[in-house]
Design a protein that fits this description.
OB fold (Dihydrolipoamide Acetyltransferase, E2P); two-stranded antiparallel sheet; 7 strands; elongated; mainly beta; five-stranded antiparallel sheet
């Protein structure tokens, strides 16, 4: 999966993701608790804006370098601090894809119960 660093992000979906015609506008969603720090199946470079260490987990509000923000809940006490540039990642089977009407697009990577 690749992404550009703009408010209108371009994505290349990998094999096994739902069939979406080229050029179709979709919204992707990843729950904050599904992110981890470091590279993975879906890697997103971010810059930490606010970091809250809450004992068993660390909440990080990050900028995607545009007008878009991303919130990640990382396990444990992360060394990330405000201003740090780092990478968050998520497994492909934790991505939710929605059409332009906000309806979930069923994916063979997810079970129907995940919707």
């Amino acid at each position: 999966m690749s992404a550009s660093d703009t408010a209108s992000t371009s994505l290349t979906l990998c094999q096994g993701t739902p069939k979406v015609a080229a050029g179709t506008k979709v919204t992707i969603g990843i729950r904050p608790e599904d992110f981890s720090s470091g590279a993975g199946e879906i890697s997103i470079p971010v810059e930490a804006i606010v970091v809250e260490h809450l004992g068993a987990e660390t909440h990080v509000l990050s900028s995607l370098g545009s007008t878009e923000n991303l919130t990640a809940v990382l396990e444990g006490r992360s060394p990330v601090k405000a201003g740090d540039r780092f990478t968050v990642s998520a497994p492909i089977n934790r991505v939710h894809i929605f059409n332009d009407r906000g309806l979930a697009i069923e994916s063979p990577l997810r079970s129907p119960a995940a919707y």
